[in-house]
Amino acid sequence: QVQLVESGGGLVQAGGSLRLSCAASGTIFSTNAMGWYRQAPGKQRDFVAAISSGGRTNYADSVKGRFSISRDNAKNSVYLQMNSLKPEDTAVYYCATLRGGIKPEYWGQGTQVTVTS
Question: How many Å apart are CA 106 and CA 88, to the nearest integer?
Fold first, then answer.
């Protein structure tokens, strides 16, 4: 059974930084592409960033240059470093395994990020 547990969310002022972590179990983590998504109140869940098993990364235009995704296969973990945060980054952030490198398959429970102006 695949389990993903996010952590690192919180309350931060605009311009600040946070680092989200996602610990995976029940899967051969090193072979999985992983992604981060976010969902603001009343909105759909949107793609934020992804990283392939080989370390290739992809970002939504809204976070390019501010967010950075990375992974540590030895720790079965994926990270999202978020810099220059804006109030519009406020959302629940979820990590997911990506089937075929594209389609979310398993989700974590999410971690809340709130950015105040």
Answer: 26
Give the dihedral of Cα atoms 50, 55, 103, 110; nearest 10 deg.
-50
pLDDT per position as a tens digit, 30-39: 889 999 999 9
Q: Classify the C-alpha dihedral 70-75-76-79 as positive or negative.
A: negative
What is the separation of C-alpha 16 from the centre of its chain, rounded to a whole number of angstroms?
Answer: 17
Contact 98, 32 (CB under 8 A): yes
What are the CB-based long-range contacts (under 8 Å, 24+) for 70-73?
A: 71/34, 73/29, 73/30
Question: What is the C-alpha separation between 77 and 71, in angstroms, rounded?
Answer: 6
Q: Dump pLDDT digits (tens) for 28-67.
A: 888 899 999 999 999 999 999 999 999 999 999 999 999 9
CA distance 106 to 2: 7
* Strand-pair partners of 47: 37
* Residue type present at position 95: C
